[in-house]
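Appendix B, example 12.
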Amino acid sequence: MRWLIPIFIYILLEVYAYQAVKTIARNQIIQIIYLIISIGIFAYIIYTFFNYDRSVGPTKYTLRASAFLMVTLATKLVLVIFMFGEDIVRLCIAGYNYLTNTFFDGNATQYIPERRKFISQIALGVAAIPFAGLLHGIFRGKYNFKVVKHVVYFDDLPKTFDGFKITQISDIHSGSFDDPSKIEYAIDLINEQETDLILFTGDIVNTMAKEMDDWIGVFKNIKNPQYGKYSVLGNHDYGEYVTWNSEEEKDANFEAIKNIHTKIDFNLLLNDSAFIEKEGSRLAVIGVENWGHNFKKAGDLTKASEKVAKEDFKILLSHDPSHWEHEVKGHDDHYHLTLSGHTHGFQFGIEIPGFIQWSPVQYVYKQWAGMYQEMGRYLNVNRGFGFHAFPGRVGIWPEITVIELRKGSKSA
């Protein structure tokens, strides 16, 4: 029953979209070809989602179905907006004709304007924009890695750490990858940054530890910088989005996911901390388990900070940025810099530096992409290394973040 409403909406969209095709393409063969393709795509989507196996989780088939769904929905929604708008105008004209007593003079239909071809042409032209954008996002955008750089200033940063550089990556989601050469390129890009410390903020897989089997060697090639590599878990790393045969099987998968971090030479912080020492000074790297306002709350900030003094300079790794909003930014212990991920920037949006930054995810998360500052505390939300659910990225590109710490009060 829960599928009936979405199916009805999809069919309604299809009926309207077909009107545009029918208006432009009078040739019945073209109309039939269009219907065969549309019905085929719809059947594939329904078959894939109806046969989704919750004991397996997302697969390349569900990702492909998601791609078809997103492309067809976005395109046909644009068509519907135009066609429905035209129908409103047509109905208004028909109403006017009725009120002027010309509606029933022997041939009522002649007073209802036909669909105008140029409206359908405009609709198809505009619909081609999201169609092309989504196709680009699927075939190119998902591996369009960008290095995003920030410089942040702190009055109380130990002097020896002035100019200290950190690379942050987040949301690997290895189970979604399908092109080893692109991932190898991204690893090379990470290594080219030659920073002092590398930090990973969770979601190494979609669900299953085995998703990472083919990628261990690739991610092990991330060079170990002078001050090491540290990581935390994300909500997908707990295996809670599939059905398990037993709790023992789920626990075994969780242990295997934690062991992945060791295999790729990252130090996994599970509500724990470590100190980075340099020339007699130190800064604390604190890692909490996932804490999300609307997701799993396994993170324990108090426990993670037990070894840390209040006056220590603190870098907090917390996968979900809602943690910063609800618990971290106003904390008395002053966590200087928090690094998060999780949102992926919805993998869809518009970003023109200095002009616009928009994504549907901003209506769910107050902090969703980039660097934020409040009360002298900073939060960086990484847009994610990989992708999940939709196998593409449109306007929100996969990110490798480089953050430089500077001593002083100037903000950049």
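The chain has two domains: 4-139, 144-407. The longest helix spans residues 60-99.
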